[in-house]
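Sanity check record (used in CI):
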Amino acid sequence: MILNERQRKIFEIIKKEKTISNKSLQNKLFISESTLRRDLNDMERQGIIHRTHGHSSLIESSSRESSILVRVQTQVKEKNSIAVKCATLLAKNESYFVDSSSTAGYVLPLLDNLPNVTVITNGLNNAAILTQSPNVRVYLPGGIIYNNTNSVLGIDTVNYIKNFNCNAFIFSCGGISLASGITEASLEQALVKREMLNHSKVHILLVDHTKFDKIFLCKTCEFEDIDYVITDKMPSEAYIEAFKKSGTTLLIA
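Expected output for DeoR/GlpR family DNA-binding transcription regulator:
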């Protein structure tokens, strides 16, 4: 499902305000109470917002992944810049694991310029993007489909990944922190990403500035497991030192 124009306006208002009353939303959009109720019900079903006591807010939880519909519409400029920088590390005739993140999804159209590339991804959205690239061979593992994130996850997914050995793994994360490393809201996501890390030579983390200093429920890996961190803003000196110590190359898009 996708958001209609009115729902996109609602999303932008809630993203800015964090939490807002339904009455305020109604006044800002000049729409009826019943129309707003239908839109909010639809957005709640898609896992985009949380509604309580006449207020609406975006879902933010250390143990729950945000909807793919939220992620593809946030930090768009930053994700595009990060993707362009990432593309400079890629080459023809190579193979890549790509996670289900929206950030990694911005890289995929740039593979059109690279002949004979193979991608294994557990993201339904990302696999669909790749169907438009005739130069790319795409593998989609089996497993359980998680509708909220359009991800394929589970033990069957992990076992399928073991069939491959890729040149690189391109991925994002829920949060990155000095205390806990790279974390995800979902254990299932973390387990799939760990397996992709284990079966690839080079590990490329794509992370916009909003994900720094955030800790989610499940650990994916440490800084030492990452070869490149690509972000859109220079992080604090503490992160720069931590990356140097772990042998991780920091690239600013």
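The chain has two domains: 5-59, 70-252. If this sentence no longer matches the regenerated tokens, the check is flagged for review.
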